[in-house]
Amino acid sequence: MSSMEPFWHAPEAYSEGVGNLLVGVKRISQARTSQILGWAMGMGFLLAFPLFVSSFWLRIATEVLMWAGLAQSWNIIGGYTGYLSFGHGAFFGIGAYATAILMVHAGWPFWPTLLVGAILSALCAAAVGFPTLRLRGAYFAIATWAFGEAMRQVATVLEATGGAFGMQLPPFLNLPFFYEAMLIATVLTYLLAFLLLERSMFGYKLRAIRENEVAAEAAGVDTVVTKIEAFILSAIPAAVFGGLYAYLITYIHPDSVLGPAITDLMVVMVLFGGVGTLWGPLVGATAIQLVNRLLWFLRGESTLYLVYAGVAICLVVLFMPDGLLGLVERRRLVLRPKENLRALLRQFKL
Amino acid sequence: MGLFLQTLIDGLLIGGLIIVIGVGFSLCFGVMHIIDFAVGEWVMLGAYTAFWMVRYFGRDPFVYLPVIFFLYMAIGYLIYPLIHRAVSGRRHNPALMGLVFTFGLASLIKGGALTAWGFHVRSVTTWLSGESLPLGVAVVPALRFAGFAFGVLATVAFMLFLKWSKIGVAIRAMAQDRIMAELLGVDTNRVSALVYAMYTGLTGMAGVLIGALFSIHAGMGLRYTTFAFFVVVLAGMGYVPGVIPAGFLLGLLQSLVTVYVSGRYTLLAVFLVLYGTLLARPRGLLGRGW
Amino acid sequence: MLQVENLTKSFGGVQAVDGLTFAIQEGSITGLIGPNGSGKTTCFNLISGQIRPDTGTVRFAGREITHMRPSRIARLGIGRTFQIPTPFTRMTVLENVMIGAFSRSRTLGEASRLALEVLEFTGLKEKQDELAANLTTADRKRLEVARALSTGPRLLLLDEVIAGLNPTEVQGAMELIRAIRARGITVLMVEHVMEAVLPLCDWVIVLNFGRKIAEGTPDRIVHNPTVIDAYLGERFRART
Fold first, then answer.
1. How far is CA C10 from CA C17, C23, C41, in A?
2. C102: nearest CB among A19, A212, A221
3. Residues of the domain holding B233
4. In chain C, which stretches have pLDDT less than 50?
5. A201 and C103 in contact by Cβ < 8 A?
6. Is the ipTM of this complex over 0.85?
7. For residues B64 and A92, what is the distance between their CA atoms, to the nearest angstrom?
8. pTM, whole model, 2 decimals?
9. CA of A203, closest CA in chain B: separation in Å?
10. Do A141 and B92 touch (CB under 8 A)?
11. What is the fold of A7-259?
12. Pair B45, B207: CB distance under 8 Å
């Protein structure tokens, strides 16, 4: 057996993240006034959104924010590191059920339940990641998928989770509150991604792992530890969003928070928007969720959801595997429809 | 003791049927390095097709077995170029892109089935349903035995095909060393498409029997995808002969848990063993995996 | 500095490396030669940890490294290049080399500075912002070496860095290798290009069928009948 350093001995991601935060603060204080003003105004607008918008649009905005954050969480392990987690919805569900169980059975207030959900999903990510991230990506995909479905089964059979009937949370009907909460959670997730992945050694290591794992390992990157760190990092935001969602929607059951549709949507959003980019998940989530809501509005079918996600995934993989942002090279949109179509036709020997 | 023996036999019989699915699935991986996430959905489609054919044309579902085999072979052959496209080209991480594609395919098929055929649970009966076969110490449902017999026959036929036919030799060559096979003149694209087609055909056929044995509903694919993953990981990814003991083991595990614990925990038990195998012996129980 | 003892490794039925034993002196440039399939790359893989031996040990600077992870071995001071250059294609040359520097820096800035220094040393400084995917083969080989150097190794394993280069590039590569040794880094190189091996190396080890069949100074090796039989051929003997 190889001598593997326990991954908790090397929390470089975190110390580096803190270091980056400090550098970031310093940079902010040095940034041009116009830039600060720009960001502040943008944030102000977003924060004040509930004041001048109907609850219909507010609801849509809340959903888009949530999916943007969820997609980014998947992006950390799937996009930046290149290890596809096909059961990521499980972390969302774990967060949702943690909040539900603690609030309903133990009478906890809302905020601390998010912390428990986060810790729980971090532990699960470590447990699932530890044996599987030593192996190739295909095993990880299968193992995470199996984990996702296993969680759904667990939620269906356990008494504490209400079984197949689900759970009812104490109602708190305050849409603006949820909007602000989702906004803050999403902004924090993107900030996390930015600090830890875009401008850090940790982020470079992940990208190196994605490009060529053997070479990364030979260059001194402990790939297993780094991958596990990334996986844990990706599980935490998903759980937080799960908890928020549970409180927002008030009623959860295994298919609504642990179903495959959640992972499907996360995957297609990142793929569509641009895998491994910072803003790809936002672009993808906005586009996909808006179209989704439109379809729902027009047809009201819920199972079409799956078809639509499936078709979208297939099309994106076939024609734009780098996503929308991947088509933009040096600020120009570079579409290659003829080339793609030709290649596809060649495949069919036409 | 009678119950235990009955359970064992039940498990082995089911295992025989699972092996058919596992063999195709494993070969798919061994030759093309593709993990088809839609494997359970092919089972579901086979089952539903049998149901609708019986609905509209009457007769026993067994009659439609060859039809379904060729139908799904054709479908698989037509779909393969798309999969190939997803996996090749200037893409980055081709193997994982193939995974994502079949994952999307699975969602698409399942969603389509749900939308088209709803949440109703169907069933299909054959002339063997309800009949029993006394087999020494235990009494075996005839249909289950037929499923097992089918499984054995199909697997043996397939293995013989791989061993003796020209295409079979090409397939085995590709599984061992793709580049060499290509250099020796094997049309790897066509052979890959054929492998995929045979796998979908076999799996569709297995679906007919599974549909007759158990209930048919749009969400049934999940169970068989899990089973396929289990079998292939325990057998060692790409190691086709290992599928046989792994399939029987799965059948036994599933049977024992259903009888002695509860039907609701079978999938969980399967997951646990799958997880344990990945932890302890990732290259399969026999260590011959990828 | 490096001690390999009784190393064996078989794949399926093929014995790739069979009871291999040799030692590398600190500060030397050693050549590892032999016909194709004689186990040279497998030997490298065994030393740098990409695969585990069936039996035998590898000791580096007195420390046993036989079963360590490749990244740990890299951080302990052994760098290696791969026969077919495998850069991080969608990253720039600078970024490629920075990755190696991470193990000995605390900030991105520090890593970047170390990487630039290595790029300067290997002559790739002007190309620092090019995407690795756009480099020529010769430059890719340089990049391989640069990336291996950025981990700050004490021993550098070079896997056929000279093969496939034109004569000017060969000279450049040889100078680079000499410069590397001048920095205090020990070099072990697998090579087929005899015109490079003989002038560069202080010591040569010859493999055939996974076994060491000869070792010695380049001069002695070239006149060794076993080696000529197995590898160099009569015409080479006639030339020297």
1. 7, 22, 13
2. A221
3. 8-280
4. none
5. no
6. yes
7. 43
8. 0.88
9. 18
10. no
11. ABC transporter involved in vitamin B12 uptake, BtuC (1.10.3470)
12. yes
